[in-house]
């Protein structure tokens, strides 16, 4: 086994071989693997945000006044309150709601009396969430928060579709629902894309908050790997290297933003094909 | 009835923590605004090096999460503590969250505000600039009398949003920096109460209420300033006098 490793030393020299070894040790592989949480949160958060956004926009444009009010409150809600508050609140509230329902099923008066803590009512009703469950809740949370932004964007885009196109569709004898699904929503995307790209950028940046929900994501691992590392056999392996790891994450997010921007520019060009040039 | 009583008893507990959020915002915003003006001018500079550096800075800090930026600044300060701050005897200042918090927020708001001002700078009417130059004004006079008044008026609605969102961003400070001497902001207080009795609905709603109320106050004050800035314009809503809308553009 040793002879196999030596060719690497001969090839790149001792220093680089050390760094290759360091950056591919088990903990670092865990760090690289934890990028899956961030990517999943971004992808599923975005899909949910789109769903909530479409629902919110439809509610906001509804003819039924209470539904319109719900839409307006939903869209307005995220503006006055920090996203991190929602991000923490939704999963906690959901967890407690489930525990409350569970408590009504399984708790007996004796078990409630035997419980010291204020929540949950009895020990049987305690729900310990796994990482994956927290991740799902985080995705829903991101979907709800950024769904409100998306709803705002889509609401604006729906109104930007030229009236003539809708009137033409109605003149062809399409029903209201057909006009909505065949013309309105499809034409809307072109106008929504710039706004949606902004929301996507926000969503990506919000995925850095996953560690607040006890998901061992890239930020959590960066803190773990960078902390001063002391081994009884080897002494101090390295001092406080957290700054290097956080700078790496800083650069990572900038690169993701750069790539998304390029992708959205492409998408925008594709969506606008055949349309007259702007300005 | 008891619900309202509990709420009323809960609300005053956040008054002191709210001061920390206000402190972070109030310290970062003026400094950030001054730097942002420099960076915005740098982005319009003819010198490609200055332009490149200013653009790169703005792109980097708008393109990465504030949460990471907090961790980054704190860890850099921590690493420099042993080599610089402690030998120089200023560790008490440099390692204080009341210093690092505004430092990170200033770096962040500088980038966002610079982008807003840059956008506004580019919409200053060309004819007015040419007229000012034709009068024989120096570049400083042109800036002072034509560019700046136009820029601030165009940028003000967007800047109002930035101020509100910077205020919201102060909620992240004590997620990343250590709490010393029981100095807690609104979010940290809510989390602290939550860990005591697990009443998420009460504590987080009241925290949200505080953020909402202060956001509204900020918005109202900035609206008054906007009215004053636009006092020479007709009262009707026209294309040149857009309504100040509480519409988020960018948050972190």
TrEMBL record, chain A:
Q: Where would you find this protein in the cell?
A: Cell membrane
For this record, an example GO cellular component is: plasma membrane
Q: Name one Pfam family in it.
A: BPD_transp_1
Keyword Transport in annotation: yes
Sorted UniProt keywords: Membrane, Transmembrane, Transmembrane helix, Transport
Has the keyword Cell membrane been applied to this entry? no
Query: What residue ranges are annotated as transmembrane?
Result: 37-59, 71-94, 134-154, 202-223, 243-264
Q: Where is the signal peptide?
A: none
Q: Which domain of life is it from?
A: Bacteria
Where the record annotates domain ABC transmembrane type-1, the positions are 35-264
Membrane topology field? Multi-pass membrane protein
Which biological process terms from the Gene Ontology are attached to this UniProt entry? transmembrane transport
Q: What is its main location?
A: membrane
Family to which this protein belongs: Belongs to the binding-protein-dependent transport system permease family.
What is the name attached to this protein's record? Polar amino acid transport system permease protein
**Provenance organism:** Pelagibacterium luteolum
Question: What is the taxonomic lineage of the source species?
Answer: Bacteria, Pseudomonadati, Pseudomonadota, Alphaproteobacteria, Hyphomicrobiales
UniProtKB/TrEMBL annotation, chain B:
Q: Which GO terms describe its biological process?
A: amino acid transport
Q: What is this protein called?
A: Polar amino acid transport system permease protein
* Signal peptide per UniProt: none
Q: Which CDD domains match?
A: TM_PBP2
Q: Gene3D superfamilies of this UniProt entry? A: MetI-like
Q: How does it sit in the membrane?
A: Multi-pass membrane protein
Q: Where in the cell is it found?
A: Cell inner membrane; Cell membrane
NCBIfam families hit by this protein: HEQRo_perm_3TM
What are the residue boundaries of the ABC transmembrane type-1 domain, all occurrences included? 18-222
Give the keywords, sorted.
Cell inner membrane, Cell membrane, Membrane, Transmembrane, Transmembrane helix, Transport
**Record-level Gene Ontology MF annotations:** transmembrane transporter activity
- Do you know which InterPro entries this protein is assigned to? AA_ABC_transptr_permease_3TM, ArtM/GltK/GlnP/TcyL/YhdX-like, MetI-like, MetI-like_sf
Q: Which residues form a coiled coil?
A: none
Q: Which residues cross the membrane?
A: 20-42, 63-85, 97-121, 163-180, 200-226
Q: Name one GO cellular component term.
A: ATP-binding cassette (ABC) transporter complex
Which family is annotated?
Belongs to the binding-protein-dependent transport system permease family. HisMQ subfamily.
